[in-house]
Amino acid sequence: MSEETTIELGEFGKLLKEKNFKLKALGANALGTEMIELEPGDLVQVCKELKRTKKMSFLNYMTALEVKAGYQVIIQIENHETMEYLVLKATAPKNNPTIPTLTDVFPNANWFEREAYDMIGINFDGHPNLTRILNPDDWEGYPLRKDYIGPVDELNRPLSFKN
Questions:
Q1: Are 75 and 124 contacting, i.e. CB atoms less than 8 angstroms apart?
Q2: Residue 155 pLDDT more than 80?
Q3: Is residue 28 within 8 Å of residue 34, measured between CB atoms?
Q4: Is the pLDDT of residue 2 over 70?
Q5: How far apart (Å, rounded) are the C-alpha atoms in residues 108 and 103?
């Protein structure tokens, strides 16, 4: 019989729990950075709270990927003065891959969100210019989705090997 391991909240998780945000502690990454999973609808308010109370004022990176539960964004925010970092994750369901935009909190989220939209199809509600950034405007589909089938044309055709 196995027991489920409970991961304790770190400093940021405890602060957010006190503010009644629904979250899940994910432990620390290989560099020791605390990781927290949030509801997509709480992401903006959590970032605003951390910016206000902990001076987490810089969005270091954002990426997106497909997981069993849906499409997940992963962001790292930081405080330049204290060199504290935090990783936040939020997963939107596959049938409605929508997450509120962070562009009002972190202006540099603009291009990160456009890339996530272009490559995996996450809609960032309230984004000022949610258009493709890597693929042509008329591109069909989202290349990083597991069910994506790319175009077949002169440059993208199946390989054939002759013996």
A1: no
A2: no
A3: yes
A4: no
A5: 7
Quote the CA–CA distance of 95 and 114 in Å, as a whole number: 19
Q: What are the Cα distances from residue 69, in Å, to 59, 84, 123?
A: 25, 29, 16
Q: Which amino acid is at 3?
A: E
Q: How far apart are the first and last CA of the chain?
A: 54
Q: What is the pLDDT of residues 32-52, one digit of tens each?
A: 999 999 999 999 999 999 999
pLDDT digits (tens, 9 = 90+) for 87-109: 999 999 999 999 999 999 999 99
* Tokens representing residue 35 in the block: 């990781």
Among candidate residues 106, 104, 111, the one with its CA nearest the CA of residue 130:
111
Mode of pairing for the β-strands spanning 58-67 and 98-100: unpaired
Domains and CATH numbers, the chain: 11-125 (3.30.460.80)
Q: Quote the Cα angle for 24-68-37, to 5°.
A: 15
* Beta-carbon contacts of residue 59 (< 8 Å; ≥ 6 apart): 75, 76, 77, 102, 105, 106, 108, 109, 112
pTM above 0.85, yes or no: yes
43: helix, strand or coil: helix
